[in-house]
Amino acid sequence: MTVNSRISGFYKLGVEERRNEVRKQVGLTDEEDAALKDGGINLDQANRMVENVIGKISLPLGVATNFMINGKDYLIPMATEEPSVVAAASNAAKMAREGGGFTTESTQPLMIGQIQLVRVKEKDAEKKILEMKKRLIELANSRDATLVKFGGGARDLEVRKIKSSRGDMIVAHLIVNVADAMGANTVNTMCETIAPELEKATGGKTVLRIISNYAVNRLARAKAVFTKEALGGEEVVDAILDAYALADADVYRAVTHNKGIMNGITSVVMATGNDTRAVEAGCHAYASRTGRYRTLTEWSKNGKGDLEGSIEVPMAVGLVGGATKTHPTAKAVVRILGVKTAKELSEIIASVGLSQNLGALRALATEGIQRGHMSLHARNMAVMAGAKDSEVDKVAELMVKEGRINVEKAKEIIKGLGGATG
Q: Potential cystine with 115: which of 46, 54, 172, 412 (Cβ 3.0-4.6 Å)?
């Protein structure tokens, strides 16, 4: 089905109306619709997923609109508790459309499995391992014939010598094309399979045999042009570049800059049932790859005075295995996205990260982050104070106007409204 992500007034619709619009566009089944409405899993399912279950916790699932990526429209579900994240991504994506939308690319889905060897006796251990490379790769692939059948499998073997507080050690890196999986189970199994052969060849002892979440061989990239007219003028472009320059030069700002990027990335990773911790750890490590923690995005002004942005991030996400295939809501989210490959999903996520960053930079450089963020925060305070549905917007509006956003002020306003209407 063809999706139109430009849905006029989508944010003004009620929850049921929004879900019906999405359902109509992507053709959700009754089961998928119910999963979105009810949160997807019951206690029995939760009890099978993790240990010592006592309940469940839910997060709001919003839909970012306006995204056009490589000429194709996407509706992008985002799971987050933070106000303004979905709105900022949608608004920035709308501005990106005027410059042609997002253009993306990604590398092959190559993950690294590490086999740690300690107390190695063989002097030429590194050489011996490399001489065994072909046989070790064949042995690793023998454990997952299905992956090999679909074009994946172990591709290469690298060797590193590490100096540590426990002495010198050797670490072999098994490079595996994991196709449309995140890859942890496959890579770990392959590492376990070849570890005994490495011990025999080196006279060492294997300790760790596990995937690395530093997915430097599995990168997703996105870029976009934001016209100065869409942003509000060349002064806004310059202000955004000034804000970016601080983030690029100063770690204190860079961390918060990247946190904003991860607001978008993590929301989509979580919504699709992928491993948020793995992606976050990999992205932050990648930000430090030059020896200094820096921004995950780059911004510049082109000859027309328009803003150009790009992002490059490790993106170890999959569409097979784990919660992505077992959690009903995650499956419904994948259906809404309409993605067919992990490659496509990774590029969508990179686009959301870039969009989120632009939204935050523009807000910071112009009106300040608080205006939009605090108006949504005020709604939460109004609800906490006991405002009725019909009162929430009015209470929030008055709190923002007076610059006092807390439960006590909300209760004061609610009392006043009650007196005025009663």
A: 172
